[in-house]
């Protein structure tokens, strides 16, 4: 609004008139000198407009600015609350990781459907599936054993092929900030660096059952139900070591080697002492 030449009264400087103003500063000419004030804050505190119509309009401007200020202050409060909450979660996260005890089977192997593989390799995350029964039916499975030391092994087999022909198609370390206990949506995101997709030729040399065995039935190769299974840490190290030897591309081989070494460090495995693979295929 335009307040130029509008007459005002100041408690200390007396009467004057507006000579200049913008959205933040207003300048008043008094008998003794020109004075600048914060606009529109000075009105109601120090300045009073003589023009009632202009004063009424100005009141609306002041009210609008007050509402905007209150909104900004509320947003600041909410932001601080969110920051405190995030800080508390971070401290909880750090405490969990500090006190975390390695589970000997804290890796996951997934049965991937053919139609989901392209999505998994483009988005680099996989869904754990939903709980099928009980009070939590329909909710995502929570991968509670997974921490930043964990790897996801991606496998598949053609529906016309026997289970023993299941192949490993890719691997990835879980995201460096991931904690399975806190996973609510069932999605396990990949590490920003340690992720590998195998070519078809490489996958043909990586039969899943060469590494995996059901200890209750060592010579049986069956996977009838379930989206995933927890997997032995040492067996996953064997898989990662074999992937290194498969890679011909220099960059991929280097990444595979880094992933293998990082995994061994995170899982306190001495790579020099890895045993020979002893999965169900080996025991036939």
Describe the structure.
The chain has 284 residues and is an alpha+beta fold. The protein has 2 domains: 1-99, SH3 type barrels (Roll), CATH 2.30.30; 103-283, ph1033 like fold (Roll). It is 35% helix and 22% strand. It has helices at 52-99, 114-123, 200-204, 233-246, 250-266, 280-283; strands at residues 7-10, 14-21, 25-30, 34-38, 47-49, 107-111, 125-127, 151-156, 167-174, 187-197, 228-231. Strands 7-10-9-8-6-11 form a 6-stranded mixed beta sheet. A hairpin with a 3-residue loop joins strand 3 and strand 4. The chain is rod-shaped and about 105 Å long. The termini are far apart. The model has no long low-confidence stretch (mean pLDDT 90). Keywords: Coiled coil. This is Malate synthase. Residues 55-99 form a coiled coil. It comes from Halalkalibacter krulwichiae.
């Amino acid at each position: 609004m335009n307040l130029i030449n509008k007459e005002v009264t100041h408690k200390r400087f007396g009467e004057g008139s507006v000579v200049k103003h913008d959205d933040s500063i207003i300048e008043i000419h008094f008998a003794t000198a020109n004075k600048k004030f914060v606009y529109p804050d000075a009105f109601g505190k120090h300045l009073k407009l003589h023009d009632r119509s202009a004063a009424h309009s100005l009141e609306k401007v002041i009210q609008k600015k007050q509402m905007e200020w209150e909104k900004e202050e509320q947003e600041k409060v909410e932001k601080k609350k969110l920051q405190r909450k995030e800080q508390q979660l971070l401290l909880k996260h750090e405490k969990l990781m500090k006190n975390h005890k390695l589970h000997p089977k804290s890796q996951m192997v997934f049965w991937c459907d053919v139609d989901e593989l392209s999505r998994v390799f483009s988005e680099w995350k996989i869904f754990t599936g939903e709980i099928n029964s009980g009070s939590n039916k329909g909710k995502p499975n929570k991968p509670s054993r997974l921490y930043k030391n964990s790897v996801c092994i991606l496998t598949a087999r053609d529906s016309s092929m026997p289970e023993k022909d299941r192949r490993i198609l890719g691997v990835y370390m879980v995201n460096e900030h991931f904690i399975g206990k806190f996973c609510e949506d069932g999605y396990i995101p990949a590490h920003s660096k340690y992720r590998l997709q195998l070519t078809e030729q490489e996958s043909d040399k990586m039969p899943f059952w060469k590494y995996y065995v059901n200890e209750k039935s060592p010579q049986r190769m069956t996977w009838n139900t379930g989206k995933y299974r927890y997997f032995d840490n040492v067996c996953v190290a064997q898989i990662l070591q074999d992937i290194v030897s498969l890679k011909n591309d220099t960059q991929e081989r280097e990444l595979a080697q880094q992933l293998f070494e990082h995994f061994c460090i995170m899982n306190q495995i001495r790579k020099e002492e890895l045993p020979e693979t002893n999965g169900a295929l080996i025991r036939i």
